[in-house]
């Protein structure tokens, strides 16, 4: 039986486990990337592992997320990342060089390699044939230190593309169609592998739009074959030597098949407030628009912006619309400047932002109150734009551009005369905004501004674990409750002591001080504790506050992993009714904790009430070892 492309890449990188679907496997990571909002913590974690040089083939540190510099904190973070990267063997992409995923595709992606990035849209690299996966900062730090990355051996979905897109229909419409069919929950523990005749009609940037937004399916990743189109792109980027042809075997067996006929596809849009609320643009055409935003790691390539420039050339942005455009990289912006397309954008009335994430992460350009914003981005969750009352629609650059001119949501099909835009034979290559690592890193001084505080580490698991029930919270507590992230707190992402004062404060403002006064203790939670984003700070702040265990009715998966990675015991009540028996301030104790963790069953003593409750700790052998060591970093240190 033949292999899918996904299985081939996994087989080449398999270090732990066997390729049995649903089981845990460990894969070797060739390349890593970080961005600034998760990077500071990842590099502090790398430093804590005491690994002098990264062991990957190549690691990159990007600055693209938060480039607003209203105080010194952000630039301090940039300088820390730059110096720590130089010391430890990591390339540093300066602010302004571009959005991590766009630059990776242009300058660093290699077909057939694995890429782990501390950003959920790392799967963009699948556009060039990489197995590219988004993860938490600590996982990326471990990969930089030479450790494997663990995933559930995925199911593979074949997305069969047939036909050819019509002018005015774009690769954004392909992924919106896949989202329409499969929904935001449709990709869990799956890789979406693109195949069929339609693949060869799509350029690498078009493929990258599809793999980028595959993240919205909840998929492990998405991947395209590496073929003549990939070869031409790499050669035009001066990297022909990085090309390898890659595809699935003709008799590969897939777990699921999704079909998209490119020739009948129509322009689509994801309506507020979810990327899978997809309808045809023609169904809601005429909607009055306040803002159009073009860019983000989904649609900011040279090809995207050339199409936009072609539509805007000689036109004027409608009176009621503000049009903002953030090119994806310095390469893109420079090429537009040199070929005159930038002038077409400016003449039409577009505002050009710097090459970065910007409005995508709510850093500037928030829409007006109750506004309608059309965006070529990948997410439209309520409030992400910075305006809670705004309605954000996700759509293609073609739809965005024509709508900016008309002032209302407009179907580009049949309404735009797009010229044939040939991909460049030679992209403009100038990597002078990428600072290479120092050959002798030990001589580099890592500069840590006052906002960059030491990273908290748990202690190895003690035989007796005791402390008070410091907080009792209800069901569905999110990582936003555990560690709020807002514009006020974001500049403090490298300062866990500062952030810890806001830990669980939305549930109980007294909790952080209570935890400090008692030198730590236990958190008691209900169902689905820790749902929401993968924010690692929601585990790090509790470590700083001395939390030894979290006892709940159930955990959200990623938060549970983050607790384990950071040496906090995640335990669930065997009898849910016992949740009601624990009161705030009760003295709790676990005897022979090290031994009990091994048995996956724990007896929790409530000394205040003279009761005992059976708990379960559902962890793998690998995770048991982490908990015994006081977290993954301590474990790595002991192994190094
Ligand atoms: Fe940046 Fe938005 Fe992509 S924050 S990495 S442009 S999803």
What is the rounded distance between the termini? 40 Å
Give the number of helices.
21
Percentage of residues assigned to helices = 25-40%
Low-confidence stretches: none
The CATH homologous superfamily of the largest domain is termed Aconitase, domain 3
Rounded radius of gyration (Å): 25 Å
**Under the CATH scheme, which class of the largest domain?**
Alpha Beta
Q: What is the tally of beta strands?
A: 27
Shape: globular
The biggest beta sheet is recorded as: 7 strands, mixed, barrel
Strand proportion, as a percent range, falls in: 15-25%
Number of domains: 3
Strand order of the largest sheet: 21-22-23-24-27-26-25
Structural class estimated from helices and strands = alpha/beta
CATH architecture of the largest domain: 2-Layer Sandwich
Explained architecture:
The protein has 640 residues and is of the alpha/beta class. It folds into 3 domains: 260 residues, Aconitase, domain 3 (2-Layer Sandwich); 138 residues, Aconitase, domain 3 (2-Layer Sandwich), CATH 3.30.499.10; 175 residues, Aconitase, domain 4 (Alpha-Beta Barrel), CATH 3.20.19.10. The chain contains 21 helices and 27 strands. Strands 21-22-23-24-27-26-25 form a 7-stranded mixed beta barrel, surrounded by 4 helices. It has a 6-stranded mixed beta sheet with strand order 7-6-3-4-5-20. The chain is globular, with a radius of gyration of 25 Å. The relative contact order is 0.11. The model has no long low-confidence stretch (mean pLDDT 95). The site of FE3-S4 cluster (F3S) has 11 residues, from loops.
């Amino acid at each position: 039986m033949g292999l899918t492309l996904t299985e081939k890449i996994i087989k080449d990188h398999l270090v732990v486990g066997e390729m049995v679907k649903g089981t845990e496997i460990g894969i070797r990571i060739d390349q890593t990337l970080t961005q600034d909002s998760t990077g500071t913590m990842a590099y502090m974690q790398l430093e804590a592992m005491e690994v002098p040089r990264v062991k990957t083939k190549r690691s990159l540190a990007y600055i693209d997320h938060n480039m607003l510099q209203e105080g010194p904190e952000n630039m301090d973070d940039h300088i820390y990342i730059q110096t720590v990267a130089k010391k430890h063997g990591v390339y540093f992409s300066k602010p302004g060089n571009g959005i991590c995923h766009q630059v990776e595709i242009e300058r660093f992606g290699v077909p057939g390699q694995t890429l782990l990035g501390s950003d959920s849209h790392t799967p963009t690299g699948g556009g060039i044939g990489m197995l590219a996966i988004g993860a938490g900062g600590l996982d990326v730090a471990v990969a930089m230190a030479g450790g494997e990355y663990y995933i559930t051996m995925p199911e593979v979905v074949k997305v069969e593309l047939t036909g050819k897109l019509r002018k005015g229909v774009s690769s954004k419409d392909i992924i919106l169609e896949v989202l329409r069919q499969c929904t935001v929950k449709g990709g869990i523990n799956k890789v979406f592998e693109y195949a069929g005749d339609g693949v060869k009609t799509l350029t690498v940037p078009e493929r990258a739009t599809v793999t980028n937004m595959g993240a919205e399916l909840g998929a492990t990743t998405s991947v395209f074959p590496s073929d003549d189109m990939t070869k031409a792109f790499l050669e035009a980027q001066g990297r022909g030597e990085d090309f390898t042809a890659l595809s699935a075997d003709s008799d590969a067996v897939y777990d699921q098949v999704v079909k998209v006929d490119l020739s009948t596809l129509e322009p689509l849009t994801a309506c507020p407030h979810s990327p899978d609320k997809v309808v045809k643009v023609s169904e809601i055409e005429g909607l009055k628009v306040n803002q159009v935003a073009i860019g983000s790691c989904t649609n900011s390539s040279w090809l995207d912006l050339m199409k936009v420039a072609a539509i805007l050339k000689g036109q004027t942005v409608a009176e009621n619309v503000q049009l903002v455009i953030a090119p994806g990289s310095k390469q893109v912006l420079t090429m537009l400047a040199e070929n005159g397309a930038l002038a077409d954008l400016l003449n039409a009335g577009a505002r050009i932002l710097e090459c970065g994430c910007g409005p995508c992460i709510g850093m500037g350009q928030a829409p007006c109150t109750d506004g309608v914003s059309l965006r070529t981005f990948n997410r439209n969750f309520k409030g992400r734009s910075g305006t809670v009352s705004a309605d954000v629609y996700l759509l293609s650059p073609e739809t965005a551009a024509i709508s900016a001119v008309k002032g209302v949501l407009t179907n580009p099909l049949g309404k735009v005369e797009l010229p044939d835009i040939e991909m460049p034979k030679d992209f403009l290559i100038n990597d002078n905004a990428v600072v290479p690592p120092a050959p002798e890193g030990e001589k580099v001084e890592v500069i840590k501004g006052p906002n960059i505080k030491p990273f908290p580490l748990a202690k190895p698991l003690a035989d007796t674990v005791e402390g008070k029930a410091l907080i009792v919270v209800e069901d569905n507590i999110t990582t936003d409750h555990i560690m709020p992230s807002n514009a006020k707190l974001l500049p403090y992402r490298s300062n866990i002591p500062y952030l810890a004062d806001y830990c669980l404060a939305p549930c109980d403002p007294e909790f952080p001080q209570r935890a400090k006064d008692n030198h730590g203790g236990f958190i008691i939670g209900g169902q689905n504790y820790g749902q929401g984003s993968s924010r690692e700070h929601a585990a790090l702040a509790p470590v700083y506050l001395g939390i030894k265990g979290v006892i709940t009715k159930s955990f959200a998966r990623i938060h549970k992993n983050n607790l384990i990675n950071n040496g906090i015991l995640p335990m669930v009540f065997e009898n849910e009714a016992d949740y009601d028996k624990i009161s705030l301030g009760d003295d709790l104790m676990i005897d022979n904790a090290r031994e009990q963790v091994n048995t996956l069953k724990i007896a929790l003593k409530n000394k205040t009430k003279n009761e005992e409750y059976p708990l379960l700790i559902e962890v793998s052998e690998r995770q048991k070892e982490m908990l015994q060591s006081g977290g993954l970093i301590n474990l790595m240190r002991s192994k190094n």
